[in-house]
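As a warm-up, study this chain.
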Amino acid sequence: MIRAAIAAILLALPWAGSVAASDVRYDILSFADLDGWTEDDHASALNVFAQTCRDMKDFDWRPLCALAQQKPGARDFFELFFRPVLITEGKPALFTGYFEPELDGALRASERYRYPLYQQPPEARETDLWLTRREIEAGPEMKNRGLEIAWVDDPVELFFLQIQGSGRIRLPDGRMIRVGYGGANGHEYSSIGAELVRRGIYNLHQVSAQVIKSWVRRNPEAGAELLLHNASYVFFRRIDDIDPAHGPRGAMNRSITTGRSIAVDPAFVPLGAPVWIEKAGSEPVHRLMVAQDTGSAIKGAQRADLFMGTGDAAGRAAGTLRDEGRMLVLMPIQRAYAMAPDAM
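Now compare it with the structure written out below.
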């Protein structure tokens, strides 16, 4: 009966069926095993968790979210009601960064502002696989239909805005408009950084967003063709109901927080869950964060994108972040032991 109950719970988990069960390992650790746990600002993490946990519908998350709204002692809250679960499936951990770009643009096309941000056309919403990036940019399908949200002055920054999925457009009069993810064409994301490595132009450790941008601008024809290597194309929507002081919306449709929000693979990590990060590298991060976002390039149990903030400085920090380490998902106790029944 116990095994049957455990199986029923596992079948209800969001990642069930996404990978072979034999490929995934779940290990329950103690909070004493988390390097730097006692030094973290747990209250900051609890505030971020409380902002989005109300959107978590599973029965074991709802009472914890209700308690989080009462602002309990943060460290005790996590230690009493959660267990850290190390989820692995054979791939090494990888942490990268993302940010909210700011681009110069206008609400009308001009000689300077020539590159449009599009809303998703109805026909693209009705199919799993629509036109490629090359076909969208070269073809007539998007023209003269009123699908443009704004025009910007730099096609390279626009390409990276699509990778980030959200950003701000600075208008000529100084006003800002915010845009967010509004759909995609269904084609798989292809890394142009990886393509530069494949061509022998750079080694893997040399590649960053700034390096890629510089190469594309130094080689305008080859650079334009390189961008088309990524067939994936992201559409946008205008967002006017978020305070400019708050971060952009993540996959849970709520603002994300600099230094506390991460993008994860929801096949392994429930959106809204607290996640303990131990990132190595020149600037180590040992911090409790919250899984509030997703990304087309974020695949795997030990894969996360750290949100670094808004603007150029955040972009530079995000563009150079590529480190190893490990991440553990803080799960409600009952769910943790259901995932790792041998630990009972």
